[in-house]
Design goal:
Layout: H1 3-7, H2 17-41, H3 48-70, H4 76-79, H5 89-96, H6 115-136, H7 140-164, H8 176-180
Helix pairs in contact: 2-3, 2-6, 2-7, 3-5, 3-6, 6-7
Bound molecules: iron/sulfur cluster.
The site of iron/sulfur cluster (SF4) has 10 residues, from helix 8.
Length: 186
């Protein structure tokens, strides 16, 4: 699909359940494999389990608590009746957060500790952690885990964002992520 066609792709008020399951399945699988890779890679250290558990807790919390509390309240899906966003998190956000302001949606990408940076950190921390672990404590299983996590990262950028999630998003014309990927009309 060309960039122009992506920008004009059909917008979904309610994403198909299959897209939402795919998005969350890939996300949770990424975090779980990342945590296992960290634990396996540093199993020579007594801190390996704590490091892996800490990473997993951070990754899940930034996605399933911080995002609904800080990003989703400003999103159009939060305010649209009977809607289902690409991750389905608007349903959680509507239960735990107060409505925000549409003009604050771009805040998700502003500042060192903005949610976008937390989101990216959760995706790349296990890759950064597993690389030195491969040198210190090589195993084929660790190598497979590293390749799997890199594959899931590529899947997210090359398929999820551009084909099943952002491309059909009602928020893509206000979203800095969609703008940076050339998926919006603005
Ligand atoms: S365009 Fe993508 S990142 Fe932005 S709100 Fe929609 S699904 Fe989320």
């Amino acid at each position: 699909m060309s960039l122009k066609n992506r920008a004009n792709a059909q917008a979904y008020v309610r994403y198909p359940v299959a897209n939402i399951v795919f998005y969350n399945g890939v996300t949770v699988f990424h975090y779980l494999l990342g945590a296992i890779g960290i634990i396996l890679g540093y199993r020579f250290s007594p801190a390996a389990w704590a490091f892996g558990a800490l990473y997993l807790a951070f990754a899940l919390l930034q996605m399933y608590l911080v995002m609904p509390l800080t990003v989703c309240p400003h999103c159009i899906y939060f305010r649209t009746a009977d809607s289902l966003c690409p991750s389905g998190l608007n349903v959680i956000a509507q239960k735990i957060a107060q409505p925000g302001h549409p003009h604050d949606f771009g805040q998700r990408a502003k500042g060192w500790f903005c949610h976008n940076n937390l989101y990216i950190a959760a995706l790349i921390i296990p890759i950064i952690a597993m690389l030195p672990a491969l040198i210190l404590n090589f195993s084929y299983l660790l190598l497979i885990l590293l390749l799997a996590v890199v594959g899931l990262l590529l899947l997210r950028f090359l398929v999820i964002f551009t084909k099943t999630a952002c491309v059909h998003c009602l928020a893509k014309n206000e979203c800095p992520n969609a703008q940076s990927m050339g998926l919006s009309q603005t």
